[in-house]
Structures are given as C-alpha cells and as structure tokens.
Amino acid sequence: MNVSYSITERNTVQVLSINSLLDEWQNRQILKELQQKIDQGANEFVVDLGPMNLVNSIGLNFLLSLFSKTKKKGGALVLANVSKRIQRILDITKLSAVFVISPSVENAVDDLSLQMTL
Questions:
Q1: Averaged over 51-76, what is the pLDDT?
Q2: Which domain range does residue 59 map to?
Q3: Distance (Å, whole) CA 50 – CA 32
C-alpha cells in the first residue's frame, strides 16, 4: 500500500495530511515522527482527513493514540475535512464526542491558535 503523507507547521500547529490510515506498520512510523515533534515541544495537531474516504479500526487507533499523546502534553488534536463516510464511522463508534472536528484545516489552525491566546 502506498501511503503518502506530509507534516507541515502553521502558526506552531502541526498539520498532518494523509491519504490513508489503513496500514498499521505505516501508522506506527508516522506516530514515531509525530512523537519526535511532541518531544520537541509541539502539542497542537490538526489531522487533515480530506484525502481519505475510509477509516478502519487501525486508523481509529492511530487517531486515538495521537489524541492521547497530545492531551498528555496539555495540547489538542483537531480533525479537519472529515468526509461524510468517516463522520458516520466516528458517530457509530461514539468517537465524534471525543474528537474536535473542523470543516477545514484553516479553521482548525485558527481555532487552535485562538485557544492558545486565551
């Protein structure tokens, strides 16, 4: 499986854009890279799910792991560009109550930046 992703920074917020979270080995590699960012002081993350149209239990576990890591550091995680299909999975699993969901990466970054100034 060819998983492509990028991690960029916007206003001190780490933005992960990824096209798939279906591969557990690849997810572990991405989490290692994100853990390095956390160890360097990053604690606010946006996960752009726009390129994805499907998530399974492996992907949900990835999101929960990243959520837990950011919370332990006093940070926050926001999901952006969530498709209707993924939103339905989050609703069915009751995870839509756990995650903050934003309509766009820009809105998510703005919301996180605003929280830090309050």
A1: 95
A2: 5-117
A3: 22
